[in-house]
């Protein structure tokens, strides 16, 4: 009887465990959100805004429908729509180029591909000849100095000058749409003199803007005087508090070295180190997760970081060897590996400044910034203040609060999602 009783107890426990497992799984499946992107919504609407029109499509490998089809194929096969030209941003139509590239022909469709990261970084009048509407469908990562939103702005300006419509097929901000942070540039680079380099500071917005490309297009159009004929095809199911891994979508690398959501989350702050003489892991299997150089005293950097109380991140010493054509190709770099532990507690802007100051304090004779640092970060004083120990990162963040509050009030007018 005792044996039977124990077996019965074990069976009851097993049933309860199975119930908990499958009950939890069912609940998770029921609550999972599958966000529909602008291209999915447009297809459901039978491509109404494109009917009878000749379309130019600005896209790359991230432009895909929820079932994985390329936006190029979706629009090309749409009844009543004529896709006549393709335009590609930095890294090309398939996101594999790490240098400037020339225009060409798409081997699959036979359509011309006009480079927007080559001899010109904007659509030229001859590229737009015979086009009725420009459509933009590219996955952004939520950081001002990631060049795709610069391409968006210049393409909108070109559409206005050509007198054609501009349509944005919206996509998630993969790092969420709530937090706003970083400097707002007071001095912008002129595309006429700086070419494609100006794409990193095309408009005075914060480093982490907390907006989708559709929302940014609306803001750019009104606040910065573009004034093109703009339509935004909004997503369905996206919320501002979502990270990309909560959308039910598969991660597609937006560029060759943006290979994970974690890297995208860190990028608004730690990405500023790309404008220094450190390697940021380009040409390794951990881009934007390792930072170093052949001359770095990584144990000293780690010890410095340990005193700073940085939330949500763990720093460990590492060594890595980038491959060509990236900085320090073929050379062993000593540095810091960054592990994200609590993304909702981590402030990437503050963490980036802490890391910068730690490298400066421990490698002051060799660590320096390149000419584009101030333009990328958006603050002409930050390098001198942090490396000269004139201000702490926390004091620097306080300096930006007034500008950020003004921006938040402005952006509220253009938000499309709760």
Verbal overview:
The strands form two sheets. This protein has a seven-stranded mixed beta sheet. A three-stranded antiparallel beta sheet has the order 8-10-9, with helices on one face. 33% of the residues lie in helices and 13% in strands. The chain is α/β, with parallel strands linked by helices. The protein is built from 14 helices and ten strands. The longest helix is centred in the first third of the chain and has 30 residues, at 2-31. It has two domains: 38-254, Uncharacterised protein PF07075, DUF1343 (Rossmann fold); 261-380, Aspartate Aminotransferase, domain 1. Helix 5 packs across helix 7 (213-223), helix 8 crosses helix 10 (348-362) and helix 9 (298-306) crosses helix 10. Mean pLDDT is 92; it is low at 1-31. The relative contact order is 0.12.
Would you summarize the structure shown here?
The chain is α/β, with parallel strands linked by helices and 418 residues long.
| Percentage of β-strand residues | 5-15%
Q: Over all CA atoms, what is the radius of gyration?
A: 24 Å
Q: What CATH architecture label of the largest domain applies?
A: 3-Layer(aba) Sandwich
What's the number of structural domains? Answer: 2
**Strands ordered across the widest β-sheet:** 3-4-2-1-5-6-7
Characterize the main sheet: 7 strands, mixed
Stretches where pLDDT is under 50 for at least 5 consecutive residues are: 1-31
Mean pLDDT: 92
**CATH topology term of the largest domain:** Rossmann fold
User: CATH-wise, what's the superfamily of the largest domain?
Assistant: Uncharacterised protein PF07075, DUF1343
> Count of helical segments?
14
SSE succession: HHEHEEEHEHEHHEHEHEEHHHHH
Helix percent band:
25-40%
Task: Give the terminus-to-terminus CA distance.
Answer: 61 Å
Mass-distribution shape? globular
Question: What is the highest CATH level, the class of the largest domain?
Answer: Alpha Beta
**Beta strand count:** 10
Q: Pairing-aware structural class of the strands and helices?
A: alpha/beta
């Amino acid at each position: 009887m005792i044996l039977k009783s124990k077996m019965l107890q074990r069976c009851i426990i097993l049933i309860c465990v199975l119930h908990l497992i499958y009950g939890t799984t069912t609940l998770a499946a029921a609550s999972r959100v599958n966000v529909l992107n602008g291209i999915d919504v447009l297809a459901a609407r039978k491509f109404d805004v494109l009917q009878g029109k000749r379309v130019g499509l600005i896209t790359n490998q991230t432009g895909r429908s929820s079932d994985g089809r390329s936006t190029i194929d979706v629009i090309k096969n749409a009844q009543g729509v004529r896709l006549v030209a393709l335009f590609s941003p930095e890294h090309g139509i398939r996101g594999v180029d790490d240098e400037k590239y020339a225009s060409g022909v798409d081997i699959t469709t036979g359509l011309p591909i006009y480079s927007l990261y080559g001899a010109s970084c904007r659509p030229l009048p001859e590229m737009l000849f015979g086009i009725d509407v420009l459509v933009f469908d590219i996955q952004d990562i939520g950081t001002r100095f990631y060049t795709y939103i610069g391409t968006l702005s210049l393409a909108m300006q070109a559409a206005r000058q050509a007198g054609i419509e501009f349509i944005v097929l919206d996509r998630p901000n993969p790092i969420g749409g709530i937090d706003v942070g970083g400097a707002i540039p007071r001095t912008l680079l002129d595309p006429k003199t700086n070419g494609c380099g100006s794409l990193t500071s095309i408009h005075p917005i914060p480093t982490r803007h907390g907006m989708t490309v559709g929302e940014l297009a609306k803001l750019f159009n009104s606040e910065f005087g573009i004034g093109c004929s703009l339509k935004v095809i909004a997503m369905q199911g996206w919320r501002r508090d979502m990270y990309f891994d909560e959308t039910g979508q598969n991660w597609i690398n937006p560029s060759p070295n943006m290979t994970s959501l974690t890297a995208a989350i860190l990028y608004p702050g730690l990405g500023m180190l790309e404008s220094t003489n450190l390697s940021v892991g380009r040409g390794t299997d951990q881009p934007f997760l390792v930072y170093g150089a052949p001359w770095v005293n990584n144990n000293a950097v780690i010890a410095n970081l340990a005193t700073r109380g940085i939330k949500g991140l763990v720093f460990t010493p590492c060594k890595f060897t980038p491959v060509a054509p990236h900085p320090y190709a073929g050379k062993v770099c000593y540095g810091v590996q960054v592990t994200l532990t609590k993304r909702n507690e981590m402030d990437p802007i503050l963490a980036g400044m802490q890391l910068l100051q730690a490298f400066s304090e421990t490698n002051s004779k060799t660590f320096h910034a390149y000419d584009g640092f101030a333009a990328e970060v958006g603050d002409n004083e930050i390098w001198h203040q942090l490396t000269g120990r004139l201000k702490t990162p926390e004091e620097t963040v306080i300096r930006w609060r007034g500008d950020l509050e003004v921006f938040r009030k402005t952006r509220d007018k253009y938000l499309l999602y709760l």
